[in-house]
Specification:
globular; binds ribulose-5-phosphate; Rossmann fold; Alpha-Beta Plaits
């Protein structure tokens, strides 16, 4: 085979896997719960399934709390009542991830919603991650860059400060312009060095002037449903 993509990892098959994982997570949602709605192509299937269950009368009194403008629009389109985040805990949150380490530490934010996701999901009693098997890694940084949201104000200075200890990486672009998050900030996609201590790195990045937050989600996920061609694997922290 000359093509590097295995047939079972063709995009159309990955979509079916993402949906399978999403359905497993939505099966955990109960009537009356406040649910954190993640962002991305996998979370989309969870939002659609939640909407389907509400419309079919399988769930009632569910309220969604969205982690992005895109998820908010989708939730409304599929008939989920939504509320903005307030200090009450969420019963459950369901979201995708870009990398899932064996201990369920995560890299998130390739979809650009890392800060709202982290702020929302930190309040969830249960954070359930849904993904296809390509997101599993043995160490964070293996496949994906680490998104770091930074203020637009003084962004070149912030990037210089970050590059002192994260030399690889680039500002995320949207065509010819800088990518802008829902919060009006920019994203620096950093290359993670090998053998780093995730908690120490998180502390150092967050201590850098101009940084809003990082896509490292450490110790937050309760479990992950990871779909592969052979079935859905349930990983518990
Ligand atoms: C968005 C995220 C997404 O959850 C992550 O990028 C995974 O997205 P997808 O399911 O499309 O692969 O963190 O900020």
């Amino acid at each position: 085979m000359t093509d590097a993509t295995h047939p079972l990892e063709a995009p159309e098959n990955l979509e079916a896997l993402k949906k399978e994982a999403a359905l497993r997570a939505v099966a955990l949602v109960q009537s009356g719960q406040r649910v954190g709605l993640g962002t991305g192509s996998t979370a989309k299937y969870a939002i659609e399934e939640l909407g389907r269950k509400i419309a079919a009368g399988e769930l009632s009194g569910v309220v969604g709390v969205s982690t992005s403008e895109a998820s908010e629009a989708l939730a409304r389109a599929v008939g989920i009542s939504t509320e903005p985040l307030d200090p009450r805990p969420l019963d459950i949150a369901i979201d995708g991830a870009d990398e899932i380490a064996p201990n369920l530490d995560l890299v998130k934010g390739l979809g650009g919603a890392l800060v709202r996701e982290k702020v929302t999901e930190a309040q969830a009693r249960r954070l359930i991650i849904i993904a296809d098997h390509t997101k599993l890694v043995t160490r964070l940084g293996e496949k994906a860059p680490l998104p770091i949201e930074i203020l637009q104000f003084g962004f070149l200075s912030t990037v210089e400060r970050l590059r002192e200890f994260l030399p690889g990486g680039r500002l995320r672009m949207n065509g010819a312009r800088n990518y802008v998050t829902d919060n009006g900030n920019f994203i620096f996609d950093a290359q993670l060095p090998e053998g780093f201590d995730a908690r120490e790195l998180e502390r150092r990045i967050k201590g850098t002037l101009g940084v809003v937050d990082t896509g490292l989600f450490l110790g937050m996920a309760e479990r992950a449903f990871v779909a592969a061609p052979g079935g859905v694997q349930e990983l518990v922290r």
